[in-house]
Amino acid sequence: MYGELIPLTSPEKWRQALAGLQHSFAHTWENSYAMNLTTGNDTFLYVYESERAKVVCPISERDYKGFKDIVTPYGFSGFTGRGEDDKFQQNWKNFAREKNYVCGYIGLNPVIDAQSYLDAADISTSNTLYVFHLKNSLIELFNNLSQNRKRQLKNFDFAQKNFVIDKARLTEFFLANYFDFFAQKEADFMTGFSVETLKFLLGLEQVLMIGYEENGEVKAVSVFSHTPYVADYLYNISVEEGRAYAVPLIWYAVHYFKSKQVSFLNLGGGVQPGDSIAQFKMRFGPDVYPLNAAKQVYNVETYAKLCIEKGLDPQDRQSYFPLYRKN
Predict the structure, then answer these.
(1) Into how many domains does the chain fold?
(2) Residue 7: which of 39, 38, 41 has the closest Cα?
(3) What are phi and psi of 277, to 5 degrees?
(4) What gap in Å lies between CA 110 and CA 283, rounded to an integer?
(5) Most buried residue among 57, 209, 227, 246 by CB atoms closer than 10 A?
(6) Cα(12)–Cα(10) distance, integer angstroms
(7) CA-CA distance, 316 to 327, in Å (whole number)?
(8) What is the spatial distance between Cα 81 and Cα 291, in angstroms, rounded to a whole number?
């Protein structure tokens, strides 16, 4: 048996399959359901079990000219599990071929070691991620900050008086400003989420919202998802006069997740390596990880045909993948 797919219609079975495994929010039923509210793609948790190992990975099926390929839903997920099985990677690819998938783009989580579940030749690096190791002491984490960050946090204790954790207020502010905020930044990839997706995410227990107010008005909000193992920085939304508060809001999250004994806080990366967003995150002095993904072709003949139809080289795995979907 090469594995099974748990559908979104079986949330409890999905949760049971993840129980006891290191996983991020992006592995959860809740994240996959939220993304499905935008994409409409059939989404599953792939589960493989043998005497030696258990491996899981969320996947979404996408149609293209009558063919199907797969992708991990938005977020940092990929393969995770326990134990090692040297037959797993071949069994996974056999499973994908049995399902008639042309190819798969499997995004990987930076702090979950899935190397034994992957063929090194399939792995590609596209960006850099910045991650707090929360097992370090607060003193160590503070000492790693840039001088500018230390200056910005000089009045952190005073700033906490203006922090807001009322989800109803913060959700109202977030939804009222989300689309304009990212449109102004020309971040089209962030404006593709539906209101239904955002509302569902913000209402979850696994999602923390922290805001900053002045004179009774919310000026900024930061949003984080979390599991007992890893937290992820999802969004920061602010009006013009609230931009300076992203730093204390992140530092509050560091304190919060340390208190919950979460091991990592993944800040993510920039849109492009070294851009202003990346530099903003670098100044927190976090550890640096590669943003990796597995680019896998299961049906070589069909993949080549679809690429050649668009005048593209099917051997090119370094750029957009799958290449035939490139606009």
Answers:
(1) 2
(2) 41
(3) -70, -45
(4) 19
(5) 57
(6) 6
(7) 15
(8) 19
